[in-house]
What does this fold into?
Amino acid sequence: MANPVIMPRQGQSVESCIISNWFKNEGDEIKKGDMLFSYETDKAAFECESEFAGVLLKRLYQEGDEVPVLKIVAIIGKPGESIDQFSDESVDSTHEGMVSVESKEEEDFTPTNGLTVARLEGEKIKISPRARKKAKGLGINYEGIGGSGPEGRIIEQDVILAAKTRSFTTPLAKAIANESGKTIPSQGTGIGNRVTSFDLLSPAPSVGEEFEIRKLSNMRKIIAAKMKESLQNSAQLTHHTSADARRLLELRKKAKESFEKGASENITINDMVCFAVIRALKKHPMVNCHLLGDTISIFHKVHLGLAVDTDRGLMVPTVKNADDLSIQGLAAQLKAVANSCKKGNINPELLASEAATFSVSNLGSYGVELFTPVINLPQVAILGVNTIINRPTDLGNGVFGFVPFIGLSLTYDHRALDGAPASAFLREIRLEIENLDFTV
Amino acid sequence: MYDVGIIGGGPAGYVAAERAGQKGLSVVLFDKKKLGGVCLNEGCIPTKTLLYSAKLYDNAREGSKYGINCSEVTFDFAKIMQRKNKVVTKLVAGIGAALKKGNVEVVYANAEIAERASDHIKIKAQDNIYECRNILLATGSEALIPPIKGLVREEILTNREILEINSVPQSLTIIGGGVIGMEFASFFNSMGCKVSVIEMLDEILGPTDREMSALLRQDFAKKGIEFYLGSKVVEIKGKEVLFERNGKTESIISEQILISVGRKPVIQGLNMEILGVEVLRDGVKIDDRCRTNIPNVFAAGDITGFSLLAHTASREGEVAINTICGIPDRMRYNAIPSIVYTNPEISCVGLTEEEAKAKKIGYKVRTLPMAFAGRFVVENEGKNGLVKILVGEKFNEILGVHMIGNPSSEIIFGAAIMIEMQMRISDVEQIVFPHPTVSEILKETMFSFHE
It folds into this structure.
């Protein structure tokens, strides 16, 4: 019979791991003790040895995938052996079996009633067997109740409390939950704490509670640590300027037209600003650096990081050797890495802050006029790109008119760079933007 | 030290005081005049008393339609006003008794904030200082007098003065075709007065569903009320009101002028600055638990500047007291009924068609004549009525119910429950409505969605 390989649990707080590398391909012969794949948590990296001998029949996740612990990652068996038994359902049953071995009190639960919830992976409900039994006895749907046990596990007391404060759900809220798969909270804001559609559509805190407690995702934890580290361990400050955006807007118009006529890339304002930044970096190599303790690494190539907003949080993927690219090439690559981030299949190496030599964060589309971006250490600077605003400008001969300006906010690490060279670099970006030229 | 000090004895203040007393809190309530506020003394109750007299008068005159002949139907205006005063006095006394039962201390004096201490607030009234752990601001609202050229305050009437007049004027010009204006229009029209209504917008009754407002306006126009819509009053010259309509200046001369263009919260003279209470659009800003930005300061009723209705005020008072007591409760404004007590009445709850469009909420709508309910035909000879129901496009939940016709004011609470409980058409269809009642029209309209 084929054997499943499980993503091991590394410590109690780890909910999922990212597969860094596969060492074996499907069809490879596996000996007991062979390294199958490496994986990492937010803190450390590990390798997984095979406990079985046979052939690697199936890899269920790719490199870069985030896998909840105790999920089946791969299947090893005899060549040609069926792996059908590891369809989703049996994965879950195996899963439960594994959990009960790992921790007697805790079991994962897959909701089975009509109000099944589409939960994020790694967010399974933890409930003690006693609590589960109690919930069954009291007819409580424990999906929506909060746990007060360790790691948010639902314990008996939570179920008893939920039964006491149990409330009803309006017909509309039920209909919406059934259709959308949204969780019905245990308490709502309607008459007699009834759960209404408003409670489903905007997860307001239930009556009597000022807030809802959620665990941070791994991603959030990483962002939190990185941001705090950056602000605590560097001497960062921000200079602001703005560049005449008439040229940008004109080029954007042309680019849009040619894209509509069939050009391969739809070059955006952001692509153009990044292009200008790369050119400025070539002239100011002291900004294209990593500051590492007592040394500074001055890069010959520009590896450009771009802040991307995803459902899971902020990611900063890197376009390697960005200074080798044409504007079209840059536009294509920026789009590619941003999309991979959104899909979640980005190569983790490109997300490391060491991967980029300089980063750009563009909040212009949100109408932001000024901000102070936070440096991704060990990089020494980051450019914040702001919205375009019409500003009164001296057009010469005493004539004033309104001209579109794009705001630029450069945060730099004063440990690595002084104010004058930073300002000179910022001016260089402005000049590059104002004199940008390329054929579309 | 009192648990709660309440400033204002209207529907927000006295209901809050009563509930707080029932919960065992020590309460002091300040009112500078009489308990009951605008609602009881110069609003809801006196106007409805007058309107009921007018309705009886209408019915008596129309009695022959039902086979009842009343010859020489007359009214005694002094008696009508007397009865109104009697009703008000009786109800005010009732509030006093209820507060006494709840051990609420009532102070009839002007109250103002004297000092803010770390754990309480001092209220000053008649040179006495009252220390209160929490205070509830419930000072209500007053008629808004717009800055019109030539307007002399003593020569015009508001809802307050018009309730004290001695005889029915020959003619009355009403500036502002909102709820208050239309109710007085209905009353004085029934009493034989020549009524003209000047409204700045292109329809009367502001946010009311336009189909309902238009029907009432047409009905009233038939009864002889003159409407000047899209008209802006520019000047008052004694008994003459000058207004601009379609770029032209016109004028009406009448015996009396009533101003009913809106109301503004009373926030002056309280020394509220001492507390630093946040004000939003002339009213005190509160959250859905009736808390202001200051921890132990609450507000309820018209002082908030929105949903200026007695029943909103009372509910806000209750929510404030529950919040003070730590009982989870909150205001929900999406299912508060609003009624125009004209003859015929207009009763509404939930979204209007105009709101649904503006908010881009997908809806389906059905309208049905009230005559589909047998009881309406029985009691409203020769009269029209209409029901309009909006439901969600996808889930068929009841979004809004609008009715014109009598006695819709007594039915609308049922529709409010449907909206508050988020019932769908299929849920309402399972409710048993008593037969024969006018309320059956709601169920009838639900089934018409299947057609």
